[in-house]
Amino acid sequence: MNNISVIGSGTMGNGIAHVFAQFGYNVSLIDVQQSALDKALTTISKNFDRQVTKGNLTENEKNDALGRIRTFTSLGDGVVNADLVVEAATENLQVKLDLFRQLDELCPKNTILASNTSSISITKIGSATKRPEKVIGMHFMNPVPVMKLVEVIKGYSSSQETTDHVMHICAKLEKIPVEVNDYPGFVANRILMPMINEAIYTLFEGVAGIAEIDTVMKLGMAHPMGPLQLADFIGLDVCLSILKVLHDGFGNPKYAPCPLLVNMVEAGYKGVKSGEGFYEYSPGSKELKVSGRFKK
Ligand code: CAA
């Protein structure tokens, strides 16, 4: 396996392209807009610079890695030689079903089709293709160049051969793959999202403020970020959509999203990406400032 196609050049897509290129794979990065691809290349270059500054990568290795990434706005051109496709497009069921239907027609017959979905059923995605045994989940964590885990999700029809291939590739990326089965939220988000939702309920019910809740979890449980900061980092819209998948999939009220989260997303407060969520973000600033909306 040498040729990897990554679909979607947003935060997850550019991180996935980054690690594959760093570890010697030829990467075709695909998106609908050339401007999005150009922006992704700039981000990847900046993230490589962090590794160069730390002495983890040389300038030459950085340039070689960047030279292995080609960009495409045509899906057909981008996947023509793919051994593995990793889809990291919008987290929307219809978008993914359409994409996988097209990928099945456009890719060579042996290509493995992986999705970086954080909660959509791999079994459902696989059923949109005529090769469900070659469809699998590769759930990277944000920021991809830093986080060691890849949750490898076996759909109902994913073959052991496909799973073994993907586990092997993850190890080559110096990641730690963990094999899990395909049920709502898989493992990562089935456990993470109820914690984040409970933190939002704790705020909503006035038990404590934002900084207090995050400090308890950071200092008390040694989490690198508190749950409310992490929710902003992931995107409040993404958190809401994963909670809806858990709520629909299990039919259990314990997964019902907190009404405060629903309101914030509906009002456009999505966290880091929109500039404000539980905290306010200004470009270039590392200061964590609680949103003025939550001040008494
Ligand atoms: N690319 C490359 N390197 C990066 C990077 C990026 N995008 N972002 C950060 N880094 C590097 C920095 O250069 C730094 O490197 P050194 O350790 O060598 O110095 C290191 O990561 C730490 O970065 P910072 O010093 O800037 O900041 P920090 O210490 O606050 O760490 C963090 C930042 C790694 C994001 C940390 O806060 C953290 O681990 N947060 C939790 C992340 C998390 O839980 N991610 C999972 C989210 S859930 C998900 O992704 C799945 C889902 O389905 C929702």
Helix tally equals 12
Radius of gyration from CA coordinates: 19 Å
Q: How are the strands of the biggest sheet laid out side by side?
A: 3-2-1-4-5-6-7-8
The overall number of domains is 2
Q: Which of globular, elongated, flat, extended, rod-shaped describes the shape? A: globular
Low-confidence stretches: none
By CATH reckoning, the class of the largest domain would read Alpha Beta
Please trace the helix and strand order, writing H or E for each element: EHEHHEHEHEHEEHEHHHHHEE
In this entry the ligands are: acetoacetyl-coenzyme A
Spatial gap, N to C terminus = 56 Å
CATH-scheme architecture of the largest domain: 3-Layer(aba) Sandwich
Largest sheet: 8 strands, mixed
If you average the pLDDT, what whole number results? 97
CATH superfamily of the largest domain: NAD(P)-binding Rossmann-like Domain
User: What is the structural class?
Assistant: alpha/beta
Strand content bin: 5-15%
CATH topology of the largest domain: Rossmann fold
Helix content: 40-55%
Q: What is the number of strand segments? A: 10
